[in-house]
Amino acid sequence: NFMLTQPHSVSESPGKTVTISCTRSSGRIASNYVHWYQQRPGSSPTTVIYEDNQRPSGVPDRFSGSIDSSSNSASLTISGLKTEDEADYYCQSYDSSNHRVFGGGTKLTVL
Amino acid sequence: QVQLQESGPGLVKASETLSLTCTVSGDSISSFYWSWIRQPPGKGLEWIGYIYYSGNTNYNPSLKSRVTISINTSKNQFSLRLNSVTAADTAVYYCARDGDLGWLDSWGQGTLVTVSS
How does B81-95 read in b/e, with b if 16+ C-beta sit within 10 Å? Predict the structure, then answer.
């Protein structure tokens, strides 16, 4: 099995760009798709990126996803930050036994 | 638009069994995988397991000995049973639709289950 490690928190100003990393502890990051969820306080998670870099309909193109094999990590980038983007973000993948694995979550503060 | 709704007791005594049901509307449960996920207060998400409409299951190894997920296709529902609960099982429990590429694309609103001593 593997773990997905995210920074505990990040902060940035409105209008700026922030990147949240998600590093896989073992095995290749490209082996299994990575999905990203946004969770606002008191709400269920919703998808912002699926299958590494796909955006569900309704998610603004300010959100983008990528993977980097050299660092064995996935990244979620949010550009043109808005106060409404303030939330917890979770990456998630699955292992060779199809067990779903979540990262620990990153608290994004837009100040 | 698929919708999921969790239901069940909000309070369970320690050592007893936690039982929750997820009712799916707007889509047939006879496709996709269907997962349970939980989130202790102030903490991150933990996948519990999934069931396929055929009845095949897959559980988080850390919970496997205590978990049973079942499905009732005639009622468009699937259920979670977690036995021998402790305070560490206190969490918001979510049900979600789960694609074969691991994408949890639709979630219920979640239900808080508190384990009391």
Answer: ebeebeeebbbbbbb
Name the pairing type of β-strands B11-13 and B111-116: parallel
Strands A18-24, A4-5: pairing is: antiparallel
CB contact under 8 A, A97 and B58: yes
Per-residue pLDDT tens over the stretch A43-76: 999 999 999 999 999 999 999 999 999 999 999 9
B17-40: pLDDT as tens digits: 999 999 999 999 998 999 999 999
Q: Does B112 touch chain A (CB under 8 A)?
A: no
Q: Report the residue from A1, A47, A104 with minimal CB separation from B44.
A: A104
Q: Does B104 touch chain A (CB under 8 A)?
A: yes
At B58, give phi and psi (nearest 5°): -150, 125
Q: CA of B62 to nearest chain A CA: how many angstroms apart?
A: 11
Determine contact, residues A48/A36, Cβ cutoff 8 Å. Answer: yes
